[in-house]
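[Q] Does anyone have a clean structure-token version of this?
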Amino acid sequence: MKDSVISPPSAEATEAVDELLPEGDAFIGYVLRFTALLVLSAGIASFGLLADSPAVVIGAMLVAPLMTPIVSGAAATALAAGTQVVGLNDLPGEVQARTFPGLLDLGIAITAGVAAGFILPRRSTTGALPGVGIAVA
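[A] Here you go.
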């Protein structure tokens, strides 16, 4: 296998990564909101597990503010100077299925996007928005 030369990230990529976490005084507010939502999400999930209710556990996942850490981890992996973190054959089937989407996944994404576009401008239908997030997940 040839050694490839990895160029440094562009200014746009660096700016996008820098926007993932706030700095200065805004960071304190971010950490407080993050902690509160994480504790509330864990409480909801705990009660959902005790009640044996998958719907409540899924709701807890929607409350959890984990998108920023997930995106931050993905950005760090992508910018890790091309180092291979794990081999493709080492990935679990669930990860492989989400990493290499097919036409069916495209259909789900487009339909869910249309549903979100229909829901967002109408106040009376915003209750259905979490369903769009679950369907895409």
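[Q] Thanks! Anything notable?
[A] The longest helix spans residues 25-50.
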